[in-house]
Amino acid sequence: MTRFQFTIEATDGKARTGRIAMRRGEIRTPAFMPVGTAASVKAMKPEAVRETGADIILGNTYHLMLRPGAERVARLGGLHQFMNWPRPILTDSGGYQVMSLSDLRKLTEDGVEFRSHIDGSKHMLSPERSMEIQRLLGSDIVMAFDECPRADRPRDEIARSMELSMRWARRSRDAFDAGEEHAAGAALFGIQQGALDPELRLQSAEALTAIGFDGYAIGGLAVGEGQEAMFATLDFAPGQLPADRPRYLMGVGKPDDLVGAVERGIDMFDCVLPTRSGRNGQAFTWNGALNLRNARHAEDLAPLDERCPCPACANYSRAYLHHLVKAGEILGAMIVTEHNLTFYQQLMQAMRDAIRDRCIAAFAGDFRRNYAG
Ligand SMILES: [Zn+2]
Questions:
Q1: Distance from Cα 285 to the centre of ligand 1, integer Å
Q2: Which among 57, 152, 244, 339 is placed 20 to 30 Å from 293, CA to CA?
Q3: 140 assigned to active site
Q4: Measured between alpha carbons, how far is 323 from 321 in angstroms, rounded to an integer?
Q5: Mind listing the pLDDT tens digit for each residue in 345-362?
């Protein structure tokens, strides 16, 4: 049984392609993980998510601990069985969403006390509790518990927060390792912090590497700093992390963000954009994003994208989808979500092929020209 094995099969510049072997299946990298917030990739059955080409999905600790509760999911056989997704699942630590969604937070060295955004009930998240929840869910890739401050905070505040996250990373490692049976089959990723600052990012990378993780995430980006600042940080941050471990850019992003990040050496991504946009009538294509509410689609018999192999593009016109979206029909959200997730997976496959063919720079150039056009 392979617990976790990352193999880089080809590189082109800083870009890499390969695979992660785990006991529940293989993850081709660079990989995009659809977000299954509350044990559901919204508007999609799990078998349809797999058909889009996804090897792994993401589950949210914060949402699942509040509803239906991690202990309940464990009693029901774990998250994979509960939601009928037998392949790998990565769970986040809950830290980011406590900061962005809950009320009345109290942050201490121990952890974060907060009230549920659903019913106001009081909860505590700490490195130990986050590891326990992710273990109860049966997560394959567990994320260390961290604090994610806004990138525009003063440097000393970013530094203090990063240092706290590194102490929490140590506690996460210890608590994960204490769950012996689960730890024997799962992986633990550390999360680099330090906002846009090269020196703080380096300190964070060194602290994490000294502890030792299966993979390393770059946290604290895609929080409103803009693409230019994010790419400037990605010009140095991935190189500070161990080259032989997967690098995961959390919460990213738009199709052109993914292309620029892969060129800079990122191996894994997650983002709500393809699913959330699908419910809002926004479709991604090789020629850019299109808004199906726009009247110019009202009598357009073309598919969303001529090159897309998804069932939506084989069977439904832009005119029909325009109608469904305008009428608020659930089917519109389902079809556009399926298309968007397929488009994202097609984009990842095209980048994996381009890296193998040593032409990622040309691919990225073509992509940006067409996508902007
Ligand atoms: Zn399609």
A1: 8
A2: 57
A3: no
A4: 5
A5: 999 999 999 999 999 999
CA distance 274 to 288: 13
54 and 33 in contact (C-beta within 8 Å)?
Answer: yes
Instruction: State the distance from the centre of ligand 1 to the C-alpha of 18, rounded, in angstroms.
Output: 26
Of 125, 208, 142, residue with least CA distance to 179 = 142
d(CA 172, CA 207): 13
Give distance in angstroms: CA of 344 to centre of ligand 1.
Answer: 10
- Distance of alpha carbon 183 from alpha carbon 175, whole angstroms: 10
At residue 17, what is the residue type?
A: T
Tokens coding 373: 């056009």
- Pair of tokens at residue 243: 């080259």
Q: Which helix (H) or strand (E) holds 261?
A: helix 255-263
- What residues are paired with 61 via a beta bridge? none
pLDDT band at 150 (very low <50, low <70, confident <90, very high): confident
Coil vs helix vs strand at 144: coil
* Cα dihedral across residues 211, 114, 67, 70: positive or negative: positive
User: What is the residue whose two structure tokens read 């080259």?
Assistant: 243
CA dihedral 208, 124, 91, 236 (to 10 degrees): -30
92 in catalytic set: yes
Question: HEC string of 168-209?
Answer: HHHHHHHHHHHCHHHHCCCEEEEEECCCCCHHHHHHHHHHHH
Beta bridge partners, 18, equal 8, 29
Q: What is the pLDDT of residues 259-312, one digit of tens each?
A: 999 999 999 999 999 999 999 999 999 999 999 999 999 999 999 999 999 999
pTM: 0.98
Residue 242: name the closest of 168, 189, 285, 178 by CA.
Answer: 189
Q: How many CA atoms lie within 13 A of 242 on its CB side?
A: 19
Q: How far is the CA of 286 from the centre of ligand 1 (A)?
A: 11
**What residues contact residue 199 under an 8 Å CB cut-off, 6+ apart?**
none
Active-site choice (55, 92, 140, 146): 92
**Looking at this protein, which amino acid is placed at residue 192?**
Q
